[in-house]
Amino acid sequence: MAGHGTDEHPHGADRLCEAGDRVYSRAVRRGRVPRRDAEPVPCLMELALLHPDPDDMDWLVPTSPQEVMTRLLRGMYDEVSASQRRVGSAVAAFEWYSGLGRQVSSVPSAAEGPAIRVLDGLARIQAAMDEATRACTTEVLTVQPGGIRREAELSEGLHRATELRGRGVRMRDLYTHVARHGQGLLTYLELMGDAVEARTLDEVIERLILFDRTVAFIPANAERTMALELRHPALVEYLGTVFERLWRLAIPLTAPLPDTGIEGISHREQSIAALLAEGHQDAVIAERLGISVRTCRAHIARLSETLGAASRTQLGVRIAQAGLDGAHRPAAPVTLPGRGSPTAR
After folding, report:
1. Which residues contact 212 (CB under 8 A, 6 or more apart)?
2. Whole-model pTM?
3. What angle, rounded to 10 degrees, do the helices at 267-277 and 312-321 form?
4. pLDDT per residue over 65-97, tens digit each?
5. What span, in angstroms and rounded, lies between the C-alpha atoms of 280 and 276?
6. For residue 193, what are the CA distances in angstroms to 95, 104, 147?
7. What are 39-67's pLDDT values in tens digits?
């Protein structure tokens, strides 16, 4: 809200303003507070003392006093010689807040964090992923939809990938087949060397980043300005299983895509044909394959020309005749118009 910026709240989590103290105390005591109650005290969101309730974004839930305490002490001990009095103040303050909680024993430990945490804003997302990167020791699994990866996106996570490679962490990435045509991705993989293995599929699930089968990050809105940090063992295990099954189906980036067996029809056009046969619209097909709607329609036009279809209805029939609808291929090969015996139109 206007008039309540950080200039009016120049303090840390260890010495809240009077208004912030009231709202945070109420949140700890009751378990959550309406978002509107926190609007006059933006310091609580900025200091990560409150965050959106995953079940209802109109409410805010408090970060446990124990977790806040641990986060404060981690930073303070780096400057212990100049911060001893602040450490004592923080300990005293959060011992008081801890006594307000109704179910302290059920709160996850500070080391593990909450099972599901909403990360609101790109800065908060990046900070959480940086923290997960520092704690990672074994492997990172990622799913990257959206087709060709922009160099800005690749550069954004380069520092994390470089840090992980330096510690011998194994990285496996899944992309769509379209990503093969991006020079930025090829340059990134060449830079990472054997530390990163990449495979591609016709289409993949939404973005997923999984560290050590312990913590996962997924988008929480379409704009990807919010994310969910997942630490629930069952959820993380499920996402790891999904990744492994997609990985087995995927094609290594170093291997060529399989030939369709039909002259004049590319692998991408085969994928588009299968999705058309399922009844999907052009925009949906483009999004799932990571291409633009314009490119998708150009491929559909080439499909129609190659299969000799004069309309979308006729194209659907020809797709089925050619075995491009995902079903079993017909026993007898289909001869395309203009490539041998004529096919009835």
Report:
1. 135, 136, 137, 138, 139, 140
2. 0.61
3. 110
4. 887 777 766 665 555 555 555 655 666 666 666
5. 5
6. 49, 47, 22
7. 888 888 888 889 898 888 899 999 888 87
